[in-house]
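Example record

The entry below shows one chain as it appears in the dataset: sequence first, then structure tokens.
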Amino acid sequence: MTEIGRDKVLRAALELFGRDGVASTTLSRLRQAGGVSVGSFYHHFAGKEELVEALFVECVELYQAAFVKELRRYQDPREGVAAVVAFHVRWCMEHPDRARFLFTERRPAGGELTDRNRAFFSEVRAWWRTHVHHGALPELDLVTTFVLWLGPAQELCRLWLNGEIPTPGDHQIARLGRAAWRALEGDGDDR
């Protein structure tokens, strides 16, 4: 299967998984929707589990690359924290199928994702540490940092993706950015 064929299967998987769920999507439907033969499918994917992992890694890679690009634009920590909150919501709104897939599927263990995450978190930590050094941000563990930074935005996106709330507005997103800054600004209490 050419890379074009592989990409067609990944696009078909994103659509089918989003509509029918991973468990309900058969390999036959994936091959048919991707327009590939059985042999071509198995040339790149050992089965549905490997396809799910490849799609998950692709979605994470796209998100992380855009996240880092956005973060690098900001030297001011307050602006950076708020901008990343807005980025997160905007990314989910611009890529609802990918965001929904990332929110609903279990993260694959190990492999390529581990390496990508290591590089991503290294970039984010480097940006963060600069501001910790100057007292603008607190020294926090990674989990606490991300929960305080993106937890409310993540919940907003989840509710929107599930159709439980209307499309988030600019005022709402800006408020979440301000709240994230208040939760994260350095005050010496966490050091």
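Notes for this example: The mean pLDDT is 93. The two ends are 53 Å apart (CA to CA).
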